[in-house]
Automatic annotation (TrEMBL):
Coiled coil: none annotated. Pfam families: Thiolase_C_1. GO terms for molecular function: acetyl-CoA C-acyltransferase activity. The keyword Transferase applies. The lineage of its organism: Bacteria, Pseudomonadati, Pseudomonadota, Alphaproteobacteria, Sphingomonadales. Residues 237-378 form the Thiolase C-terminal domain. This is Acetyl-CoA acetyltransferase. It comes from Novosphingobium marinum. InterPro entries: Thiolase (IPR002155), Thiolase-like (IPR016039), Thiolase_C_2 (IPR055140). Keywords: Transferase.
Length: 383
């Protein structure tokens, strides 16, 4: 199987976030549109130039059509594929292939959510496996708790190690002005929080915030018209293994093993070549699973890997340098923000900029460890 698109042929020309944390008074589409306009200004493009529109909103099944109408544009192609948080990285795969093929010239990927200010809670999706229902799981936390419990049983992973993930995220957030949750946080603080679905407690769970983000993608030669140097996309891939995690053959392995391997192979890189990592950390177990499945450590060693400050500021592998979903923001679906932070790192403008970073990996999770997508970005110097 060949590459989906030519490595480095497509770049991010513009990126923006808006309303991160709390944005009262904004609808989801207003948040997405605001981020889109800001990203377009960053890219130096106008509305009539946008011929591809990729979005999924939490409250609109026809969100791509709605955003096109809201912006007053007539795109050649729209997509509101919704796999959960990995949707936007999957959108990027499609957009890059279409840009490389010449079908599109300028694609926007956008998202907006007012989950916090609207008081909304994450509802069980209509397609959830009805065979899980008799056990009355708390959606989605109980399904992630299954994976965490199995990992602990099989590999000896501890709640203290899970807590290290949240503490590292908070340390990054404390020096990021955009981060919603700041202040001191210790392993003991996490362990003392209320248990929700054993072994996951409140301290192991992501935030509930508002927020929007948008990217503008163009062929690399065209992307140079923007305010900043284009950020090339070196590799990208997605993989889906099931819907409910209860259908997993192994609760400790996700399809990140597949999406990550294909994205890195496309980029011609290995995990050792990646300078900074942005992961979808809806729960602390996610970070451990994804670090293993993406190849940054061996299966079963994730608990030890995240301990001792290895993924925190000053550690050997910077992970979720904006604070992640655990401490920066989590507006219903977080995938867009993994990419936004990776792009900022490659541009050299991140709040917690990693000096000399030339490669960044963004990874997102959809459903309940169901669909995974991985993107490898390079600095402008890599192409």
């Amino acid at each position: 199987m060949g590459d989906t698109f030519a490595t480095g042929k497509v770049s991010v020309a513009g990126v923006a976030t808006f309303g991160v944390g709390e944005a009262p008074g904004y609808s989801t589409i207003e948040l997405a549109a605001q981020a889109t306009r800001m990203a377009m200004a960053d890219a130096g493009v106008s509305l009539p130039q946008v011929d591809g529109l990729f979005i999924c909103l939490p409250d609109d099944l026809f969100s791509a059509l709605s955003l096109a109408q809201y912006l007053g544009i007539h795109p050649r192609f729209t997509d509101n594929n919704r796999n959960g948080g990995s949707s936007f990285l999957s959108h990027l795969v499609t957009a890059c292939a279409m840009l490389d093929a010449g079908y599109l010239d300028c694609a926007v990927i956008a998202y907006g959510s007012n989950q916090r200010s609207s008081g909304g809670k994450l509802a069980t999706p209509a397609g959830a496996d009805r065979w899980d229902a008799p056990y009355r799981p708390r959606y989605p936390v109980s399904l992630y708790a299954l994976a965490a419990a199995r990992h602990m049983h099989r590999y000896g992973t501890t709640r203290e190690q899970l807590a290290e993930v949240a503490v590292a995220a908070r340390q990054w957030a404390n020096t990021n002005p955009e981060a919603f949750a700041q202040g001191p946080l210790t392993v003991e603080d996490i362990l003392a929080t209320r248990m929700i679905s054993t072994p996951i407690s409140v301290g192991d769970c992501c935030l509930v915030t508002d927020g929007a983000a948008a990217l503008v993608l163009r062929r690399t030669e065209d992307a140079r018209q923007g305010q900043d140097a284009p950020v090339p996309i070196l590799g990208a891939a997605a993989a889906t293994w099931y819907n409910s995690v209860t259908q997993a053959e192994d609760l400790t392995v996700t399809s990140a093993r597949e999406s990550g391997a294909r994205a890195l192979a496309m980029a011609g890189l290995t995990p050792a070549d990646i300078d900074v990592v942005q992961l979808y950390d809806a729960f602390t177990i996610n970070t451990i699973l994804f670090l293993e499945d993406l190849g940054f450590c061996k299966k079963g060693e994730g608990g030890d890997f995240v301990s001792g400050g290895r993924i925190a500021p000053g550690g050997s592998l910077p992970v979720n340098t904006n604070g992640g979903g655990l401490s920066c923001c989590h507006p219903g679906m977080y995938g867009m923000f993994t990419m936004a932070e990776a792009i900022r790192q490659m541009r050299g403008i991140a709040a917690n900029q990693i000096e000399g970073a030339e490669t960044a990996l963004a990874h997102a999770n959809g459903g309940t460890l169901s669909a995974q997508a991985t993107v490898v970005f390079g600095s402008p110097a890599t192409v």
